[in-house]
Write a sequence for this structure.
């Protein structure tokens, strides 16, 4: 993960991110109560459901000011 911008602290255990070497992508599981957003979307990612996320995606946690770039 590369931290792009951070103004406020994220709550611990907001999500789980695993690398899937076979598919060269990430597996993302959202535990947060305040929402997680993918690539600037206005819609929250589903909670407690693992989804595949491609390299180069931006994940915004909570208030969308905590943005992480998945390389």
């Amino acid at each position: 993960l590369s931290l792009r911008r951070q103004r406020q602290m994220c709550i611990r255990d907001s999500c789980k991110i695993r690398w899937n070497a076979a598919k060269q992508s990430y597996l993302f599981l959202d535990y947060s109560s305040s929402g997680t957003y993918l690539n600037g979307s206005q819609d929250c990612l589903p909670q407690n459901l693992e989804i595949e996320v491609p390299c180069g995606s931006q994940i915004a946690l909570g208030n969308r000011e905590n943005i992480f770039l998945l390389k």
About this structure: Confidence is low (pLDDT under 50) at residues 1-7.
